[in-house]
Amino acid sequence: MKKKQLITLIVAAVLLGAIYWWQNSTRSSDWYGGEGAVSELIMPDFQFEKVYSVRLEKANETLTLQRGEKNWGLQERYGYPIDQSSLQTLFMDLLETKVAQRLTLNQDQLEELGLTQNAVLMKMLDKDGKQLGQLRFGRKHERESEMPPMPYGGGGNVPLGRFMELEDGSYILAANTFSRVDDGMTQWLDKEFFKISDIKKASLRQAGELLWEVTRDSAGADLGLVGEVPEDKEIDSTKLNAIKNAFSWIRFNDVADPAADAASIGMDQAKTLQIIDFDDFVYTMQIAALKDGKQHLQVAVSWQGETERRPGEDETPEDKARLDNEFAAKVRGHQEKGKELKDRLSGWTYIVGASSLDSVNIARDDFFKDKPEPAEAAEADEAAKED
User: Fold this and answer.
1) What mean pLDDT value characterizes the chain?
2) Of 167, 188, 209, which closes a domain?
3) Which of 290, 328, 297, 41 is nearest to 166 (CA)?
């Protein structure tokens, strides 16, 4: 490399380093308020282990996170478990966030910064209902991004902190956005549900009458419809494939009152869907009739597999001991999973997407389609040969 080129590269590196230092010093100034900034925690005495209730009061709703015997639940959703990671994020934010800048604000400024009617008021209580702390959250403090808008996201404003009122009535800019306090009711719910990937057998009944049944012998085989097929019809394989995938990615939107009257949520006209997978887990679902555009669902899970292994022929004592241990470990795993699913899902009524059960909540006739006319069948055969 020539000496002139080397000098040019060194100068360029120095310039880039200076630009990087300036950009980062600007960001630091944005975060910590520039001149007059302080470095103190917003809640120096916060002890999350003493908190038994967190109440978030917003303009359009109030929600209460309540500590229970086993976990935290959402009071307005009948104690349904909340997302523990979201709660942990909120508590860590309260524990670690520092004051970026102390502020003196007039009434107009309070309204502009969202610290009046649009604020989120958070109250924390101990196990006896005594208030441990109170905070008011205004709007987020943002800086315009230096990145241009991108076709698939990116650019826009960069959130840096949040305007807040502390319990002593003072106002600050906090070095944290506290995004969890903006979450709505259903966003706090623990959305872990269930998944069925290897269906061995499925059936749908209503009032004890079998509507349809499908089955297959192995996980690699296609599902087959049990029973006769009308002479002028043939089975629509897309309908059978839809059943295989119906519960591979199901989610729920909300939970209903466990004590709700059956007629009020369509459970008085429920159909019973039972699915058995190749691991011998039995999923029994009560699919309610649509009520006011809402689809309610109840789920019960059990494991009904064999608990004793059948030894193979000519097993050595060493092989038998090893295979017995492996089988016992597998049984324990299935039993634990079955218990976990039963404990988590039983007793709750879920509200799912109105169309999420369309592939299983069908009549037996829906599995059929008209046979093609002879001419159409010949053309289809000829096309298949050419392909």
Assistant:
1) 88
2) 188
3) 41
**Confidence check: pLDDT of 35 > 50:** no
pLDDT value, residue 157 = 72
Position 146 scores a pLDDT of 63
Report the relative pairing of strands 131-144 and 224-225 from DSSP bridges: unpaired
Distance CA 42, CA 33 (A): 15
Closest CA to 171 of 136, 219, 130: 136
Q: What is the model's pLDDT at position 261?
A: 96
HSE at residue 54, side-chain half, CA atoms within 13 A, is: 22
Q: Which residues are paired to 102 by β-bridges?
A: 172
How many domains, in total, are found in the chain?
2
Element (H, E) at 370: strand 368-370
Q: What is the pLDDT of residue 155?
A: 55
Which two structure tokens, joined as six digits, stand for 192? 């872990």
Identify the helix (H) or strand (E) that includes residue 235: strand 233-235
Do residues 46 and 70 share a domain?
Answer: yes
- Do 354 and 247 lie in one domain? The reply is yes
Report the side by side order of strands in the sheet with 131-144: 80-81, 72-74, 62-67, 53-57, 120-125, 131-144, 157-165, 171-174, 99-103
Q: Which residue has the higher pLDDT, 355 or 32?
A: 355
Q: Which of 336, 200, 191 is nearest to 255 (CA)?
A: 191
Q: Model confidence over 67-116: pLDDT tens digits?
A: 999 899 999 999 999 999 999 999 999 999 999 999 999 999 999 999 99
Q: What is the pLDDT of residue 30?
A: 42
- Three-point CA angle 336, 337, 339, nearest 5°: 65
CA–CA dist 86, 42 (Å, integer): 20
Extract the tokens encoding 218: 């192995």
- Alpha-carbon span 181 to 329, nearest angstrom: 43
Q: Residue 112, exposed/middle/buried by CB under 10 A (0-12, 13-18, 19+)?
A: middle
Instruction: Please tell me the pTM assigned to this model.
Output: 0.81
Q: Do residue 167 and residue 240 come from a single domain? A: no
- Are residues 251 and 361 located together in one domain of the fold? yes
Residues in the chain: 387
How far apart are alpha carbons 359 and 234 in whole angstroms? 18
* Alpha helices (runs of H) in the chain, residue ranges in sequence order: 3-32, 84-96, 107-112, 237-244, 317-345, 374-386
